[in-house]
Amino acid sequence: MGFLHEHKISRKNDFDALLQGGKTTVCFPLKFIYTIKNDATPSFQVAVGVAKKRFHNAVDRNLLKRRIREGVRHIYPQKDFSSFAIQILIVYCDKSIAPQNLIEKQIDAGFQKILSNAKSL
Known about the structure:
The protein has helices at residues 12-21, 58-75, 100-120, and strands at residues 23-27, 30-37, 43-50, 85-92.
């Protein structure tokens, strides 16, 4: 199963809401900006960002975005996001390219933090 279209944040309003009122957690080299809604229909949406300022070559930015999306695709089925409407923006913060296994480990840790925060609401 690939990274589904329903899991992508594509509307500008959603991005603006995330950047304006989202909570932040960091699992280096990833920064998670997220919003949680308990009253809405359950959904899970993700967007990925890699700064052009840090990685001038599009090839490197695309490589990191693919690795992050692949990590989300692997970790998402293991977590229970079924009772929340969660939107997450994952931003890559390091200046060097991290290996896939480190990215997946940090995505797992970030999702754990987000879920523990969501359950405490």
